[in-house]
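Hypothesis: this fold can be encoded by more than one sequence.
Test: take the structure tokens below, design a sequence, compare later.
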């Protein structure tokens, strides 16, 4: 039976929804138990005789994958073939900049673009630490957007960045990720209708993840499992590569294998002392480095 390439646009347990050529959408099952497609995956599939469902037979090579450690210590892929990571912080709850730095490190290792969004500006009080942190990101080269999903201010520039890309939103619980998605979708009612239309009236209503087509262009993968994930960085080189300013400065270190901690002639340490590298970002690097070292020792 002839097979065709399709993209996974919604997942619900072992069932999927696929987008075929000409934007045709079909329901699909997965062949065997070893295949684990995720939203964003390109797969090969074929129609099942005398049924409306299709059968997913293989997963195509991924350009990248968003992953996290699961409860068994294994790496779980959450989404694939992403173009843009949107990292959200907010005036409330208090930002955990270390978590934001971990997200950005994951984007660097995936070799995709990332932006920082500061939501709930209607509640912002001009906190000096927040202003400094956002300035650090901008000086490092990450676009920073200030917005309020409540008032919808500052959303248009973010819409423009997402246009023609497949994006995914991550961040701490409570920062308003769902609210931002709702605004990008033109309102909660429109987003609810979109999900209902893709999953069928009353059929497979428990959606694990879904790729939403935005009215202003672009797509966004919405998944509760993705929103609050802790990125998986499995090696010291991955941690170094996750901080673009540290990786760049490290080329001037005396030793090629410098970890940028206590080694003599370390250009990164000099950058921190000269304030050309954010001391706060450097502390995030140190914490993630020590965490990764502990995980390597356990394995």
């Amino acid at each position: 039976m002839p097979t065709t390439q399709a993209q996974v646009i919604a997942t619900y347990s072992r069932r999927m929804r696929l987008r075929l050529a000409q934007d045709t959408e079909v329901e699909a099952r997965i062949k065997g138990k070893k295949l684990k497609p995720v939203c964003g995956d390109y797969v090969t599939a074929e129609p099942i005789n005398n049924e409306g469902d299709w059968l997913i037979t293989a997963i195509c090579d991924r350009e990248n994958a968003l992953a996290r450690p699961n409860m068994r210590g294994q790496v779980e892929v959450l989404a694939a073939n992403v173009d843009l990571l949107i990292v959200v912080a907010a005036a409330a709850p208090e930002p955990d900049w270390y978590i934001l730095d971990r997200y950005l490190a994951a984007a660097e290792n995936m070799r995709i673009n990332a932006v920082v969004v500061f939501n709930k500006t209607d509640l912002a009080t001009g906190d000096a630490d927040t202003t400094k942190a956002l300035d650090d990101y901008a000086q490092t080269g990450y676009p920073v957007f200030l917005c309020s999903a409540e008032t919808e201010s500052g959303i248009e520039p973010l819409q423009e960045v997402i246009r023609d890309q497949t994006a995914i939103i991550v961040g701490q619980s409570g920062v308003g990720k769902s609210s931002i998605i709702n605004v990008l979708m033109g309102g909660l009612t429109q987003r609810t209708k979109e999900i209902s239309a893709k999953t069928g009236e009353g059929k497979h209503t428990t959606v694990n993840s879904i790729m939403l087509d935005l009215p202003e262009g672009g797509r966004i993968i919405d998944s509760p499992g993705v929103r609050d994930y802790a990125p998986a960085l499995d090696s010291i080189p991955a941690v170094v590569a996750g901080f673009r300013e540290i990786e760049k400065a490290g080329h001037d270190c005396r030793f090629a294998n410098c970890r940028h901690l206590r080694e003599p002639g370390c250009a990164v340490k000099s950058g921190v002392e000269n304030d050309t590298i954010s001391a706060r970002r450097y502390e995030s690097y140190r914490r993630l480095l020590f965490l990764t070292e502990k995980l390597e020792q356990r394995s």
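The radius of gyration is 21 Å. The first strand starts at residue 4 and ends at 12.
Hypothesis status: open.
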